[in-house]
Design goal:
Number of strands: 4
GO molecular function, one term: glucokinase activity
CATH class of the largest domain: Alpha Beta
Protein name: Glk protein
Order of helices and strands: HHHHHEHHHHEHEE
Keywords: Kinase, Transferase
Structural class: mainly alpha
CATH architecture of the largest domain: 3-Layer(aba) Sandwich
Radius of gyration: 27 Å
Distance between the termini: 72 Å
Organism: Symbiodinium necroappetens
CATH topology of the largest domain: Hexokinase, domain 1
Largest sheet: 2 strands, parallel
Oligomer: single chain
Strand order of the largest sheet: 1-2
Number of domains: 2
Helix content: 40-55%
InterPro entries: ATPase_NBD, Glucokinase
């Protein structure tokens, strides 16, 4: 059977791992934690991973701690694979609600060691490459909304640009579009301080009558 990485390393993975451990080791189940995890007796089951992370952080349930450790290791291992794929030497940024809530666990501040970082760096002879990749946790939990807003803004600007170019092409004498040079740095003669010179082109898109 195939298990996708999302079923283990994503936020839902904590619940999946705990469910398996509770099934395999029923004698280790903390009944109060388990009840909080599955939800009320009457009503829909919640299977709330927050109940597991809370119990693991407080140290009242070893099974919960084991589940979170397995999750952190799987997360770190997959993050290491991603880092080797893209080589983000400027930084690997981790997002998501569970990630931001569990940042102290991932960094090792909660337990004194980081299962996440151990798995992240456990890549044999390419480990030195990963040691050059800083890992950041994005604490904002609205990254999906921000991404959607950025995408919508880019689409709007692209459509606006296309409309303007379409209107300009209908002119009797269509203007020639040129790319503005970016600001350039000019070194003063004699080794003086750098001067910033900005080159600008005047815009004149008036159509001829």
């Amino acid at each position: 059977a195939r298990v996708s990485v999302e079923r283990v390393a994503a936020g839902r993975g904590i619940a999946n791992i705990y469910e398996f451990l509770a099934w395999k080791y029923p004698e280790k189940v903390n009944k109060a934690v388990h009840r909080s995890f599955i939800g009320p007796i009457e009503g829909p089951r919640t299977f709330d991973p927050a109940a597991i992370t809370k119990a693991a952080t407080s140290g009242i349930c070893q099974l919960s701690k084991q589940a979170v450790d397995i999750w952190a290791g799987a997360y770190g291992s997959e993050a290491g694979v991603v880092a080797l794929t893209y080589m983000p030497f400027g930084g690997l940024y981790l997002t998501g609600g569970v990630t931001s809530k569990m940042k102290d666990w991932l960094s090792g501040k909660t337990t004194g060691h980081s299962t996440f970082l151990e798995a992240f760096l456990d890549k044999g002879r390419v480990t030195p490459m990963l040691m050059r990749v800083p890992v950041y946790v994005v604490t904002g939990e609205d990254m999906g909304e921000r991404g959607a807003m950025l995408k919508a803004t880019r689409i709007y600007l692209e459509q606006t640009k296309n409309r303007r170019m379409s209107q300009a092409s209908k002119c009797k004498a269509a203007p020639e579009f040129i790319v503005k040079p970016n600001p350039i740095s000019v070194i003063a003669p004699g080794g003086g301080q750098t001067e910033l010179t900005e080159i600008q082109e005047a815009e004149d898109l008036q159509a001829e009558d």
